[in-house]
Amino acid sequence: MNKNFAEKVYKTVQKIPLGKVATYGQVAMLCGSSKAARAVGTALHRNPTPDVIACHRVVNRSGCLAKNFGFGGQESQKRLLELEGVLVDENYRVNLYNYQWDEKINKD
DNA sequence: ACCATGACTCCAT
DNA sequence: CATGGAGCCATGG
To answer: Is A31 a catalytic residue?
Structure first.
């Protein structure tokens, strides 16, 4: 395997702190390419280990999760985020202003 | 190696 | 804010 980019994506997603969310672009930038958001989506869509990769903590630039989300769809996504303390509106949208992961604050 | 697809993002209208 | 078009990256046939 060792799908370099995908591995990086998975690693970054696993680094997202509980109760926070990150955008595809954010993950892409941390992976080395600020424009590889699409590739990030592809990698997460494969999501080989949903038990380890918190794909539900990854949302698009609007704070909304992709409609093609697996694992039960946005329904399960919303529940998971709320369980982590993230408020999701009826439009399945989160307040990035308050919940977007800030790697600066979270950095080791 | 080429073409088509996709869990994206940005800009213009 | 909604819609459409263009750009970028990685994967699969």
So the answer is: no
The pLDDT score that the predictor gives to residue A108 is 66
Residue A63 (CA) to nucleotide B8 (C1'), in angstroms, measures 12
Q: What residue spans define the domains of chain A?
A: 4-98
Protein residue closest via CA to C1' of B10: A35
CATH number of this structure's domain A4-98, picked from the four choices 3.30.420.40, 1.10.340.30, 1.10.760.10, 1.10.10.10: 1.10.10.10
Strand B reaches within 7 A of the A36 CB: no
Strands (E), chain A: 22-23, 58-59
Q: For the segment A54-76, what is each residue's pLDDT rounded down to a tens digit?
A: 999 999 999 999 888 878 888 89
What is the sign of the dihedral through the CA atoms of A64, A69, A75 and A79?
negative
